[in-house]
Amino acid sequence: MKAFLISIFVLLLSSGTGSSQQPHPRSQYRIAIRTTNGEAEFYDRQTGETFLPRGFNYIQLVLSPNGPYGESALFLDDSHNLIDVDSDFQRISALGYNAVRVFIDLCRDARCIADEDGLVESYMDHMVELLERARQYGLQVMLTANWLPDLGDYSGPAHEICHSTGDFEGGNCLLLSPKGVESYVKFFTDFIRELQKRDAPFSNIWAYELRNEFFVENNIPPYTLKRSITAANGRTYNMNTAADKKKLAREGLKYWANTTTRAIKELDPEALVCCGFFTPSNPIDLRPGDYRIVPFKSLLENSELDFFDVHMYPGFESMADHLTNYGIENYREKPVVLGEYGSFLPLASSEYPAAQLSDAWQSAACQSGIDGFLYWTWERHRVPVSQPDDPWGGNDAGAFIAKVLSPAYKTNPCQVVLPETNVAKGKPAKASMVWKEEFKAANVVDGKPVTTPWISGGDPPQWVEVDLGKKYDLESIVLYVETGSNDPHYYEHEILVSAESTGNDYQKIHHFKGKRVNFEALTYQPDGGIKNVQRIRVRIPAAPGWAALHELQAFIPEQRATFDVPPPPILTFPRPGLDKVDNSQNIRLRWDNAIETTNSQIQIARDRAFSAIVIDERLHKKSFILDDDLFDNPLYWRVRQRNNDGYGMWSVTGIITNVLTNAQEAILDNEIVLYPNPANDFFHIKWLNKNNGRSSWEVHIYTLEGMEVSHHPDQVYDQDPRISITHLQPGIYIVRIKRGNKTNFARVVKQ
Questions:
Q1: CB 559 within 8 A of CB 421
Q2: For a Cys-Cys bond, which of 442, 530, 541, 705 suits 474, CB 3.0-4.6 Å?
Q3: What is this structure's pTM?
Q4: What are phi and psi of 328, to 5 degrees?
């Protein structure tokens, strides 16, 4: 089924004409930028409404044959799966999200976007399939480049020249050297032309991102040289002076950004162009000794980039520190998007605290003026081993995090929806001894379980304790171990609790013993909870060195019932825009979900707004038979499911139709050709290798969504009938031609 659908889609997209290399008309993109009351914002050209991007990084990392981890499975021939993409996009859309960030090249060497001959045809075909699925579900796509391809006349020639001169090396070569900037221009213009050739749905391309995370390296040439070099902008810099080094970073990188942006806009004037950045390490030194320079402020103030993508993760530095180093506390001239944020596994022992962490972080970013939010990632990396830097996926645990952060539940992106349940956070703490002030007892309740430990400075036994301020009935206590090593070593941790403010009546309730690694989370969650607790002490009777602890968390019962409802189900037949139905017999509608529930509600209506509902049934299965006598072309359907906590969100709206929608037709015939194509006011139909003569023709024209927009009833035509399309808007249409008992399909582009 997968291969069948893909082959059809490729046929539809690959039957272009010689004019496909020409740029598309202006304003093909839906998303643009305007300034309202002195603040830049995204908006939708069609509706005029403000567009606030909310969604996910969608990457699907898998085990790489060239390394331990990982490469994107989205577009490679041996792993691309259109049905997986469709299922994910259905659920993302049903939860109210409107954007995804997709890496176009998260791979290396021959297993990637380019080979020795240039951009790989099948790779680009698969990318257009993803864009079509995004269009089907109303998702805007940021297409992100991680680096230039190794093959295909892109990074290779630049590195050869840089290496031969010795002026530039590594990533600096691609950003600062003449051939490097030329290669960037070539890649992005080639890339956009390939999308144009395939009539990709540009209306759902939000932006092109030049780099995932932008930086230069001060530990390789030209920054390690003691002589002058000439950069891509034609200027000479003396690398023996600190002033010229800074000037090169400022001027050279502005030249790279502006030159590449101008090349894209010359080809595609309405395109939006951005770049991604991790947080600079100054003025606050967030990464001591880091060789990477992030010249964000220079590009913020001087570049022609349309907007900026910043990456900030909770649980490490504060939001204020990030904003200070970016210099965007009061910046409103161009939009700034939080293109990566999320909760990493070492920071949260379950999906609930993970959701809390990102819920509060997104709200803080929103309150600071950030213009969009893309969680990292939709699905935890598809790697058969646990990685220490894996994130909690939005789709994990019944899409719990996705529900919490979604516009369907978190309607105000600036407002926290999950209340704090860690009652130890920020409470008074003390310890048996402290090595230095920076390793004080308060570190165990600062909300940073992997960065700021308490260190006693002495051998066991030692203890650290927290006063909760009042009595609580706790659900669990979680300890984050500090060992200083990823190698396992034997430790013991005792948990003692007291109901008194003085802590005079401590009672031991649990004793952890075993080999531990750094940041390991130890959870004590007894049946019935832990009653009447005001003080908690962690005693460390055994350790291979000084006693220490990263974090102590004390959780009251979670308030999660609203988010424990089922996630939106996935419509598996007919899939919107992929499957048509046969109205000559009963139709079995089918859906599925990752959770085990069959309690469903289905609604079928004659309109997308479900104001004319013809069927509304509750049933205990995941399918429904629609009688053929009820079929009316088209019908619309949706499903939601229920568990003990209530009903979840509705699925996306599906279409029940027997006409062409997108790529669902079985065969794109080669017996006819439409000309001219692209066309302006009309096109002709030519029947190849046959004597047309005078015969009866019937012609229907549909949008890609399957809506009929033109019908030319039975007429007797001479050869090559002429069909008027003056009334149609510019775009791509499917033409259905019936001649005698033969029906053919073709595609026409209206200019």
A1: yes
A2: 530
A3: 0.79
A4: -120, 20
